[in-house]
Amino acid sequence: MTAERSLADIFRRLIATTGPISLTHYMAEANARYYAKADPFGAGGDFVTAPEISQMFGELIGLWLADMWIRAGREEPALYVELGPGRGTLARDALRAMKRYGLEPRVHFVETSIALKELQLHAVPEAQFHPDLSNVPFEGPILLVANEFLDALPLRQLIRTADGWREAMVATEGDRFVAVPGARPMDAALPESRRGEPEGTLIETCPAAAAVIYEVAGRLAQQGGAALFVDYGHAEERTGSTFQAVRRHQKVDPFEAPGEADLTAHVDFAMLAQVAQSRGARWLGTVSQGEWLRALGIEGRAEALSEFAPQHRAALHSAMHRLIDGDQMGELFKVMGLAAPHWPDAVGF
Ligand code: SAH
Fold first, then answer.
1. Segment 277-329, tens digit of pLDDT
2. How does DSSP classify residue 257?
3. Topology of 1-33+154-217+235-286 in CATH?
4. Which ligand 1 atom is the nearest neighbour of the CA of 148?
5. Pairing of strands 156-161, 164-173
6. What are phi and psi of 92, to 5 degrees?
7. What is the mean pLDDT of the chain?
8. Domain boundaries 36-153+218-234+287-331, CATH class
9. Is the C-beta atom of 283 inside 6 A of ligand 1?
10. Is residue 34 within 8 Å of residue 246, measured between CB atoms?
């Protein structure tokens, strides 16, 4: 048996044969390979996500969804839909919290990684799996959650060169991968309002994330329901590259070992809110994770858990601070809420 060929080798061969590949292609293939392989989360892995830091994160999301569902009239059957559920920890914690309020939705996971599906099934045995949203049932309101999902979707970068807008491509220089502007004019890929930026400007877009929001918003308008998207990103328009890679808790060069590190980019929540509204969903707001968790009562929850288990008081408080403090995840991470037009106002926005 021959050893599995590295993705870097496959890319080198492809580029040598057909020329530079788009950054979008590079990121899509690299992350598909990365997530197919193993469990990247937790202290022993590459990075730690909020639901792995504390059960409070998933519980408060479950509480928010249950509150929306109850005030919207307790419609059955409700669907809990999660995009990229990781280890299934968030779903498990959220479903436990929802059950306390009489909400026991059917569970649908959108996941492509076979390795992660196995872990998710272990955490939530009743879950049904889908490679994308298209086959999630159309009956019943959807209660949808996506934590650190949009940031992993393939990014497109557009660069203003002396000759106009060009897409960022990946070429090789010896054995190394380097970003270069493509040959084709890409002005049409940008909204007119942004085409006048000066030479050297880099603008990121994520057509895949826009497509997900488009689909979710359409379903909210049609089926009813509410959705939470949590990710690092910005609520205003910006320029410059945020393409990055993380491996074993360190930032590394995203061109160094494709498929071996988690590739991400900041999420453009301003653009996504526009897409959602254009499809008829209600944008509830985009706030910082720290603000949202405080509004949902994380401090009281940490205190209650500490009284119940005093030996964990220090750990509970340090986990809470990691989630909400401005110099930790509290500011950089944002929570965007969407709902059906006829659903009630939400807590936390
Ligand atoms: N939500 C989890 C995991 C975040 S990592 C947590 O917070 O811990 C990103 C997740 O999205 C992984 O489960 C990964 O396998 C999944 N994923 C990445 N790209 C995907 C795609 N295109 N379609 C479906 N799932 C994808």
1. 999 999 999 999 999 999 999 999 999 999 999 999 999 999 999 999 999 99
2. S
3. Rossmann fold (3.40.50)
4. 4
5. antiparallel
6. -60, -45
7. 96
8. alpha beta
9. no
10. no
